[in-house]
Every structure is written in structure tokens, then in C-alpha cells.
């Protein structure tokens, strides 16, 4: 897959099939759109193009961007879109000036004049241009005017639940990892560098890797203890992870600490990937470290049972 930060850099394509959106999560619904996109392109000896933005529109247009949390990092999104078989990925710069561009101007300037579009594939709730409403009927009129196909992919349901990025964020906020992973179609993950912590885990027999996230806008699941897998140096390890403020130690500063089973390597300064399997329990305050260790022993047994597969 080729990646562009300037849409004019794309070479002329025989049969350009395009979709547009933020694609945060690249979840089952997005995957359905991308599958349709790729199939349509390849059936016509063409190429599949995804257009997304270099930043979320809210980060440019609204004052609450500090509240934004994303399911995917920049690199995760790229990898997931590439895995879907897409040929070209375009990151359009999103600015206030760009936000004022009408749907008509966007279609003519970008899709028709630059990409020479042959087909446009959209999700059921796709919106673009400077209107808040779903503008599929308006786009359909442009498709007739400029002679390209337009198709809308219906919502993806999973056991009666419409798949959406907002539902996945809500599930992660509640620590419902199983639901989030089902809607995503893959396991949720965090990545970061292992940094030096307070070494309490080492003293109580549960050494941990303190993880400094590489992305400030990445969504962190709710506070608690999780069964996880860690990818490091082309190997996968099992373990458990605590997200919390460590109330037993009266630290009150958010930390993400992973304890890896049967692992004794020094990985300070290394980047690792955390893959979430399930939540074990909420974070708790204990009267002392001895009580904490008793609970950690129980957590470890549960984690092992969840990580059997």
C-alpha cells in the first residue's frame, strides 16, 4: 500500500474506487466497507483508494479536543487499512479553510479532477463536505453528473448490535474488553516504552513493566486489572496488567503496569505492545501490601485461565 500526504501525488489510476472517512478503529463495519471497496476495484482491474484526514476535525473546529481519545494510533490505522488490501491511503490535511469546502467543490476538485473517480463507496452514515446532514442523495446527483458509480454499504450488525466507533469507545470506557474486541474484529492494543517505576512490584514478587504510552490521544480502558498478552522482540508473552492510580500505595497518579508471566528480561527503554484479552476486576484499595499480594495471586490464576487459548 502506498501512503500520501498530498493527494496530487497519486499517479493516474485506470479505475479509481474511493472511500472517505476517519476510520477510527477500522472495526468490523469499516472492514465491510473496505472489503467492498477492494472487491469493486479489483473486479474492474482498478485500484482501491482510502481518503482520511491527518487530524480529527474536532481538533481543528472545537475547543474540547483535549477530550478526544482514539481507538487507533496513526500507525495502527495504517496497518489495519493495509491489511484490508487497500492500494492507496491518502491523509488530507484538515484545516478550517478545508472545513468550509462544499460537497460539490470537494467532489469536483478532489474526486473528479485529481483522482478521475470511477466509483465511490460509502458507509451508511458517511458525511463529508461542510454539511452536518447525511448527503448521500446530493452525492448521487454528482455521480450522475460526473459519471461515476456510487454505492452505500449498509450498517454492520453483530448479534443485533450495530457496529460503530462510539460503541467500541463506550465498551472500552467500561472495561468491557470482550465486547470491544468483538466489535473491532481483533484485540484492542496499546503500545509504549517501558520506563522505570517505583520498584514496589519487584519487592512483592510481582515485577512490572511501567508503560509510557507513545500516543497521548490513545483511549485507555477503565481502571482495573486485565488479562493481556505482550508482544516484544517478535515474541508473545502472557501476563496481567493494572491500569490505575495505585490507591494502596497512595500514589494517585495514573500508571499502566504489566506483569509478564515466566519472564525475567531487562526491557527498560524498549517498546512493547499490550494486547487486551479480558478484564479481571476493578482497581481496589487494600489495607496493606500483604493483602494486595493475596489478591494478585488470585488475579494471576484468573489471568492464566483467560489466556489458555
Description:
The chain is about 30% helix and about 25% strand. The strands form three sheets. It has a six-stranded parallel beta sheet with strand order 1-4-3-2-5-6, sandwiched between helices. The chain has a six-stranded antiparallel β-barrel with strand order 9-10-13-12-11-14. Strands 7-8 form a two-stranded antiparallel ribbon. It is of the alpha/beta class. Helix 5 packs across helix 6 and helix 7 runs antiparallel to helix 8 (about 175-185). A hairpin with a 2-residue loop joins strand 11 (about 225-230) and strand 12.
SSE pattern:
EEHEHHEHHEHEEEHHEHEEEEEH
- In round numbers, the mean pLDDT is 90
Q: Structural class given helices, strands, pairing?
A: alpha/beta
Main sheet, how many strands, which sense, barrel? Answer: 6 strands, parallel
Helix percentage range = 25-40%
Strand order of the largest sheet: 1-4-3-2-5-6
Kindly provide the radius of gyration, computed on alpha-carbon positions and rounded to a whole number of angstroms: 22 Å
* Structural domain tally: 2
CATH class of the largest domain: Alpha Beta
What best-fitting shape do the alpha-carbon axes yield? elongated
Looking at the overall shape, the CATH architecture of the largest domain is 3-Layer(aba) Sandwich
Query: Could you give me the name of the CATH homologous superfamily of the largest domain?
Result: HUPs
Amino acid at each position: 500500500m502506498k501512503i500520501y500526504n498530498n493527494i496530487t501525488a497519486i499517479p493516474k489510476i485506470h479505475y479509481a474506487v474511493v472511500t472517505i472517512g476517519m476510520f477510527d478503529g477500522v472495526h468490523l463495519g469499516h472492514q465491510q466497507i473496505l472489503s467492498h471497496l477492494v472487491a469493486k476495484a479489483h473486479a474492474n482491474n482498478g485500484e482501491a483508494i482510502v481518503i482520511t484526514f491527518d487530524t480529527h476535525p474536532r481538533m481543528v473546529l472545537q475547543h474540547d479536543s483535549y477530550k478526544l481519545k482514539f481507538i487507533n494510533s496513526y500507525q495502527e490505522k495504517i496497518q489495519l487499512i493495509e491489511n484490508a488490501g487497500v492500494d492507496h491511503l491518502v491523509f488530507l490535511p484538515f484545516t478550517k479553510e478545508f472545513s468550509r469546502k462544499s460537497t460539490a467543490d470537494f467532489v469536483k476538485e478532489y474526486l473528479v479532477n485529481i483522482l478521475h473517480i470511477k466509483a465511490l463507496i460509502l458507509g451508511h452514515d458517511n458525511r463529508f463536505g461542510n454539511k452536518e446532514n447525511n448527503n448521500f442523495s446530493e452525492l448521487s446527483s454528482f455521480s450522475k453528473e460526473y459519471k461515476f458509480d456510487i454505492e452505500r454499504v449498509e450498517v454492520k450488525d453483530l448479534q443485533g448490535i450495530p457496529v460503530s466507533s462510539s460503541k467500541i469507545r463506550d465498551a472500552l470506557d467500561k472495561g468491557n474488553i470482550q465486547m470491544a474486541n468483538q466489535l473491532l474484529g481483533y484485540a484492542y492494543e496499546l503500545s509504549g516504552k517501558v520506563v522505570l517505576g517505583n520498584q514496589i512490584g519487584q519487592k512483592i514478587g510481582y515485577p512490572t513493566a511501567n508503560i509510557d504510552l507513545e500516543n497521548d490521544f490513545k483511549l485507555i480502558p477503565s481502571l482495573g486489572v486485565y488479562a493481556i498478552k505482550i508482544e516484544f522482540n517478535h515474541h508473545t508473552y502472557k501476563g496481567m496488567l493494572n491500569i490505575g492510580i495505585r490507591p494502596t500505595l497512595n500514589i494517585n497518579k495514573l500508571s499502566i503496569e504489566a506483569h509478564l508471566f515466566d519472564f525475567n528480561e531487562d526491557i527498560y527503554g524498549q517498546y512493547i505492545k499490550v494486547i487486551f484479552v479480558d478484564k479481571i476486576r476493578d482497581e481496589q484499595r487494600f489495607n496493606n501490601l500483604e493483602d494486595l499480594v493475596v489478591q494478585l495471586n488470585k488475579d494471576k490464576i484468573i489471568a492464566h485461565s483467560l489466556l489458555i487459548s
